[in-house]
Amino acid sequence: MTNMKDKVVIVTGAGSGIGLATAQLFAKEGASVALVDINEPKQQAEELVVAGYNAISICCDVSIEKDVEAMVKKTVDTFGRLDYAYNNAGIQNPVTDTVDLKEAVYDDVMNVNTKGIWLCMKYELLQLIKQGTEGAIVNCSSMGGLIGVPGRSVYHAFKHGVLGLTKSTALEYASKGIRINAVCPGIIETPMVENMLATESDAMDELMKQVPIARLAKAEEVASVVLWLCSSSASYVIGQAISVDGGYTVQ
């Protein structure tokens, strides 16, 4: 039910973590995959090609419009079309009280985490509309897009913003057969979280105490939800924010 043969997918933030796990899963299900990151994930794409899958790597800063436009163009020039996208690229900021946050940090988080999602959707949608085909887009928000946590005001604000973009845009394009949804990962075993565990251990310890399943998630556990949202199995799912957080936001 999730066979992706002859489908083409873009995955941003595919150099590591959830993005890489998602790109690998789509490739294994038969899709041609464009692995996109600000540091071009050449090795990651080459490993998929060596393993017999269809993949390319693209260097793209999702906060820069011309980069995003070029990303979609290269994908289509290479594979002939676009069917799905997982807009995963994002950055974190250190735990900081709102009054202590620097404007430059605010701008960086906004530009990548929210503006970047908007730009990616814009050019992915333009291609899907040009093709006149159905498709699916999944945006990466966070459990921080559903709740508040002290010291995370800016990160959470822009992850909330991703859900606003997702829901409103989903309503605009549902009638064209383009389904847009979001995933809200919790505390996932990724390089970003490993850095947080190393540099913000007290804050992370407190977060982990509130995870009912009492463990970190694997990146593959989020990737499987993204795959499902793009598949025909989720054909009636539109504008939703799917939590993958071990029960954190249920409490």
Automatic annotation (TrEMBL):
TM segment ranges: none
Any Pfam family matching the protein: adh_short_C2
Keyword terms: Oxidoreductase
MF (Gene Ontology): oxidoreductase activity
Gene3D superfamilies documented for this protein: NAD(P)-binding Rossmann-like Domain (3.40.50.720)
Gene Ontology biological process terms from the UniProt entry: bile acid metabolic process
Record InterPro entries: NAD(P)-bd_dom_sf, SDR_fam
Family: Belongs to the short-chain dehydrogenases/reductases (SDR) family.
Listed name of the protein: SDR family oxidoreductase
